[in-house]
């Protein structure tokens, strides 16, 4: 009885594994109507899916669109616009095979990243009178301000506090 359970369990597992492996397309392929079609490379979209008699037909992405990896997509993605109102400018222009890479404008730092690109930026903080710039802002960090100690002063634009004159 015990060996019968093992045989049934082994048969079920083997058949599940066999079906799983048998139906799967290769990494650079996608399934369409029961067939494994070759994917289009970066910069190209599927114009026509493969058939029994022909391979996948690929077409280049139109201007201002891209696809950055092999895919079965029938349309390309719109290129990102680096919007100045969000504190951004173009670091690297969009190509058929890569999206636009945005970076913060001067005096701004990135507050939201996606892959290698900045999606949103904010203006660096300004230090107030009585504070000094402890750490200047960078494209990835905000300005760090610190309070002046007693008998020192700063108008907020100094990198250290100065002593009051006697």
From TrEMBL:
GO molecular function: transmembrane signaling receptor activity
Pfam families: TNFR_c6
Disulfide bonds: 37-50, 40-58, 61-76
Transmembrane stretches, start-end: none
Chain positions of TNFR-Cys repeats: 24-58, 60-102
InterPro entries associated with the record: Fas_rcpt, TNFR/NGFR_Cys_rich_reg
Gene Ontology BP term (one): negative regulation of alpha-beta T cell proliferation
Protein origin, superkingdom: Eukaryota
Membrane topology: Single-pass type I membrane protein
Signal peptide stretch: 1-23
Residue ranges annotated for the TNFR-Cys domain, each copy included: 24-58, 60-102
GO cellular component, one term: external side of plasma membrane
Keyword Zinc listed: no
Subcellular locations according to the entry: Membrane
Alphabetized UniProt keyword annotations: Disulfide bond, Glycoprotein, Host-virus interaction, Membrane, Phosphoprotein, Receptor, Repeat, Signal, Transmembrane, Transmembrane helix
The protein, known as: Tumor necrosis factor receptor superfamily member 14
The organism of origin for this protein: Anabarilius grahami (Kanglang fish)
């Amino acid at each position: 009885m015990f060996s019968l359970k093992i045989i049934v369990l082994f048969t079920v597992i083997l058949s599940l594994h066999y079906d799983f492996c048998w139906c799967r397309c290769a990494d650079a392929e996608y399934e369409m109507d029961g067939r494994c079609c070759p994917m289009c490379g970066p910069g190209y979209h599927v114009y026509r899916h493969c058939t029994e008699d022909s391979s996948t037909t690929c077409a280049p992405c139109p201007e201002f669109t891209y696809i950055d990896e092999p895919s079965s997509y029938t349309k390309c993605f719109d290129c990102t616009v680096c919007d100045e109102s969000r504190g951004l400018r173009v670091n690297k222009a969009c190509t058929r095979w890569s999206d636009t890479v945005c970076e913060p404008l001067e005096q701004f730092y990135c507050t939201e990243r996606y892959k290698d690109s900045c999606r949103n930026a904010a203006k660096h903080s300004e230090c107030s009178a009585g504070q000094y710039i402890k750490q200047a802002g960078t494209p990835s960090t905000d300005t760090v301000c610190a309070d002046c100690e007693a008998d020192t002063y700063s108008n907020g634009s100094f990198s250290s506090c100065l002593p009051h004159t006697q």
